[in-house]
Design goal:
CATH superfamily: Response regulator
Largest sheet: 5 strands, parallel
Number of strands: 5
Structural class: alpha/beta
Order of helices and strands: EHEHEHEHEH
Number of helices: 5
Strand content: 15-25%
Strand order of the largest sheet: 2-1-3-4-5
Distance between the termini: 16 Å
């Protein structure tokens, strides 16, 4: 029996980065990108209406709201798994996300195949949770 595709939402302020991530992740036929936005408001609407398995979120936003947004997402009844992408690593930031239970803190220049592997791995955690 074939598994349903991984439902993925991308949130990054930079439109060029969003396009590049969509292009990179579209290589995987088992990943369905259900949204790509720079807005927390649009992302929350997609989260509530479409229930993605995985949320990829940039950490270095001009508004500094990534941690707050993660807290809101994690308060949902069945939140997606969250993968944080960052342009440069910060141990303090990584620990702040880890404190919320978010352990995938990755550099944006991650190899495409590795990013796809991480998305699949996180989606598997969702599937285990619902069995």
């Amino acid at each position: 029996m074939k598994e349903d595709p991984v439902r993925l939402l991308l949130v990054d302020e930079n439109a060029a980065v969003r396009r590049a991530l969509v292009l990179r992740l579209s290589r995987a036929q088992d990943i369905q990108i259900i949204g790509a936005t720079g807005s927390f408001e649009a992302a929350m609407t997609t989260l509530v209406e479409q229930h993605p398995d995985v949320l990829i979120l940039e950490s270095k936003r001009r508004d500094g709201g990534a941690l707050k947004f993660c807290r809101q997402v994690l308060e949902m009844t069945l939140p997606p798994r969250i993968v944080i992408l960052t342009s440069f690593a910060s141990e303090d930031e990584r620990l702040s996300f880890a404190h919320l239970g978010i352990n995938q803190y990755l550099l944006k220049d991650i190899d495409t195949e590795e990013l796809i592997r991480v998305v699949r791995q996180e989606a598997q955690q969702i599937r285990l949770r619902s069995t």
